[in-house]
Amino acid sequence: MLMRYLTITCFLFILASTLFAQNSSDTITWRIETIDGNEFVGKIIHKDSQNITLSTVLYGEINLTTVSIKKIEPVKEGQLKNNELWTENPQSTRYFWAPNGYGLKKNEGYYQNVWVLFNQASYGFTNNLSVGLGMMPLFLFAGAPTPIWITPKFSIPIVKEEINAGGGVIVGTLLGEESDPVGLAYGVVTVGNRDANLTFGMGYGFVGSDLGETPLFTLSGMVRVSKKGYLLTENYLITTSGDNFTLLSLGGRTVWPKVSVDYGLLIPIVSEMDGLIAVPWLSFVVPFGK
């Protein structure tokens, strides 16, 4: 009697597990990237060691060999809009340049170039720690002193995909002449997800061991408006010796799988300045790593 009960129980458990697995496979939408660069989105209706059959909206049922698949991953809720896949934001950790509370994922990185001379590469050593290295190669111009900098950054999720905190330091110096290191120690809080968020930041500048007396404040935001397009704003308020300096910016970002382009206008506002001027911003970002 006991053996019969155990047999029935095991059978029911296996049957329930099988039905659950089938139901999960039927309901999950998958993104499959092939080694020749094609991308397919749909539900897996058959899978074995050599082949996968995918049911798609655009192409119907397609058969793929497992050796032709470079990457397969589930599509998160909200990524499909009108049967079009909006991939994860590949440049979600910063605005034009200022960081937010989100961090690079482990083994993820990017190279950024602004108007040819500004160069920075950043890399995620863990999901919570990234480091950037930058340079303006002015030594190419008659051996002028060359600015270099390092930007370690920590990021901590407070409420997953809703509130993130981050902090770090930007430290730079000049190669080619003796000078004290200068930099900024900062902290940021980001409210929102990686596609639409607002970040408040505060930092103190320093020269050598001397810390600034007044803080710098930042308020930046990002919103996704299409599969490849974003609106960006990055703004600073700096107070020194009773004078206020404000830097406003507004622009956009267009992303592709292997490169993204940021473009916009920087608007400096000084209390004694007559009228407004706008400086164009243009940068290219190439992702690398995972």
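the 2nd protein, sequnce then structure:
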Amino acid sequence: MASIFSKIIAGEIPSYRIAEDDRHYAFLDISPLAEGHTLVVPKREVDYIFDLSDSEYADLQLFAKRVAAAIGKAIPCKRVGVAVIGLEVPHAHIHLVPINKESDMDFRGKHLSPEADRMAEIAESISRQFE
């Protein structure tokens, strides 16, 4: 059965798309830690990030680096934090979170619930910065 991320990539479930290429897809987390919290996934469904081939892993990280640069340009923050937890969805993914302090990356803390219009505005803002 396809993961929720595979369904998002296929367009079966809507998302706030940031960027994509032939092997990767980046979209806003719908329960973000901060505005601009983005998920970067390989299009090929692999449960555990370290099960990706070396070239797939490297390409995913390089794609995420480009997305992080776009987030940093679009969202005021000191850094874009990176986390790979991988337990919540059985599809490898990287969290990119705009942060100003370490506690901004606490996944146990409060998550935001932005309105759809705000999510679309954030996605567009980041997407415009993607190179």
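The beta strands are 17-20, 24-28, 38-42, 79-83, 94-99. The first strand starts at residue 17 and ends at 20.
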